[in-house]
Amino acid sequence: MRRLLAAAELVAALFLLAIALLTSGNVVLRDVFSYQIPDWYDGARMLLGIALFWGVALATYYGSHICVDALWEHLDTGGRRQLDIVATVCTLAFLVPLAWMVWVKVAGTGTQGTMDLRMPLWIFYSVASVGTTVAVMLAIARIVLLWRGETDRLRPPALDDQAEATHVA
User: Fold this and answer.
1) pLDDT tens-digit profile of 87-101?
2) What range does the domain containing 41 cover?
3) What is the domain count for the chain?
4) 154: which of 7, 30, 31, 102 is 20 to 30 A away, CA to CA?
5) Summary mean pLDDT of the chain
6) Which ranges of 34-76 does DSSP label H, i.e. alpha helix?
């Protein structure tokens, strides 16, 4: 599981880096040399979609998405776990059709391409679709871990490191 999470974090981070490099590279080239990277805008949009879908996978597993804990804070440990299970099942109920429809979109792109370089869009959509599929898998894994009461395995590794550093000191 840790390998899948690390891979998802790496994919999301690499695509965010690619967006930053593409955008800043285009700005420098445009301002300094009056040249624009072909398809930089379409490319940045596609890369952003990929990064978002992979980020949704991570946020779903870690339960770190933006939420209001007004009810959750007033529950005991068992109630919190039950509410987390219900919330994750609801998230899964939305992720499954989303993943399905993104794969349908991949199948329907045909020969569509980007404006300048005519790069096939199905490549970008496929990588994003894998991200939605990983989100579904991680939501199921989260439900199973919550059901078993193994909530400590749902923390991001950075929080584990901070907890160990605090505990040792």
Assistant:
1) 999 999 999 999 999
2) 2-67+76-168
3) 1
4) 102
5) 88
6) 40-62
- Residue 18 bridge partners (DSSP): none
106 token code pair = 């991949």
Contacts of 2-5 with CB under 8 Å at 24 or more apart are 2/157, 4/134, 4/137, 4/138, 5/58, 5/61, 5/138, 5/157
Burial status of residue 74 (CB atoms within 10 A of its CB: 0-12, 13-18, 19 or more): exposed
Two structure tokens written together for 5: 């999470």
Residue type, 110: G
| Phi, psi values for residue 120, rounded to 5° | -65, 130
| Cβ contact 54:124 at 8 Å | no
Task: Decide: pTM greater than 0.85.
Answer: no
Distances in Å between the Cα of 89 and the Cα atoms of 6, 63, 134, 169 are 23, 12, 15, 38
